[in-house]
Amino acid sequence: MKKLLILSVALGSLSSAAAAQNNELHVYNWSDYIAEDTIAKFEAETGI
Questions:
Q1: Which residue in 10, 6, 42 sits closest to 26, CA to CA?
Q2: What are 6-38's pLDDT values in tens digits?
Q3: pLDDT at res. 15
Q4: pTM of the predicted protein model
Q5: H or E segment at 10?
């Protein structure tokens, strides 16, 4: 179980590093948890 957790964290960090190079941010969240205009505001403020 501990090895699986370590593997998951390692793979997660690698995938987030690859996403950073593409100037993309992936947000995994429950539906209807973020307001519809939040993403547009974030993109306008950060340029991502």
A1: 42
A2: 888 887 777 665 555 667 788 888 888 888 899
A3: 66
A4: 0.44
A5: helix 2-21
Q: Is residue 10 part of a domain?
A: no
**Cβ–Cβ < 8 Å for 37, 30:** no
In a domain, 7, yes or no: no
Distance CA 17, CA 28 (A): 16
End-to-end CA distance of the chain: 36
Q: How many CB atoms are closer than 10 A to CB 25?
A: 13
Residue 42 maps to a domain: yes
With beta carbons less than 8 A apart as the criterion, state whether 46 and 40 touch.
no
Q: How many domains does the chain have?
A: 1
Does 15 reside within a domain? Answer: no
